[in-house]
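User: Write out your own:

AI:
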Amino acid sequence: MKIKISKEIIVVFSICLGFAAGFFINQKLNEKIYTDLYSEDGINLSVLGEVWRNINQNFVFEDKIDEEKMVYGAIKGFVSSLDDPYTSFFDPEEAEDFQDDLDGKFDGIGIQIAKKEDKIVVISPIKNTPAEKAGIISGDVIRKVNDEDISTLAIDMIVKKIRGEAGTDVALTIERNNIEKIFNIKRDTIIVPSSELEFIDTSNGKIATLSIFQFSETTSKDVKELTNKILNTNNVKGIVLDLRNNPGGLVSEAKNIASLFLEKDLQIVKQCDRSEECTWLKSDGPGKLANYPIVILINEGTASAAEILTGALKDNLENVTTLGETSFGKGLVQRVVYLSDGSILKITTEKWYTPNGMQIHEIGIEPDINIVNDEEDTQIKKAIELIDNK
């Protein structure tokens, strides 16, 4: 006997099947969430949910509840608990400022800071900015911003307090040589130069002084144009590579610039993750600058990618001399993760080593010739003298 099934029954059956499938999938998702929240190591993230519910149900100032702000606050709590000054979370608004940093343009006073030995230290003031003009120098310790103690704040929060609209003022309480002094500085729009080139005439020829101020997204392109000028200039005896007060930036840019000095496949830097799996970044060549005598100027403000470039040239080339003062000592690599809502996670993922296997974190690179600088820029004068005598 044939049984006729009406279209209505088929539709009802399909709907029921859909509900059943949805219930099954939802149950599995809930099981996964439960597993994530109640992991084997006993971490119970459901407490976050309890706090969330209690705030939404019971907090007396209901108009002050900002759920988006609560979420970002919780994430920042996760990140700050890592106690790593180089790992930061930026909400979408802060992420725009962070991207401006990479682009080399922002409103502020023009300093790079880091946490060192539990102190907020100025890595370097940026050239021709309000901070430099006010007298801020590498190694200064920031104690207060606008009379507020910032010693317990995360780096990104301190940066946010120092920055502000161009034309407004900020007061920094600076400790230098165990003496505190207040610097009142007017903020401005900071446009960070990536590099510059100058030729100095001596009795024996020309010396190229190539200054690199940071490693932003366009630095290697700019430096390549400048190195072409060196190659196309007659009677250049050598190069002074000035990396003083260069706070670093993108490792990829340091690699590209190292490739201008190093022949193809020479080792630039070794990066090792938490499993001690290591990879080498190697030169792409052509290394057209390799045969010039080179003096690299470094100081306490030379950090991160600038130290990578210094180590790569120092360890690979016999005609390189480092001169100045011990560098800052930042031997860690951060990755920038762009999140789905426009926020950014900058996270420390690797340690790095020079080609000779040196891990410089919190140690720095000791120069071959140690000279403390002065108002007459004795360091660069000595660098020119070394090359001229060769």
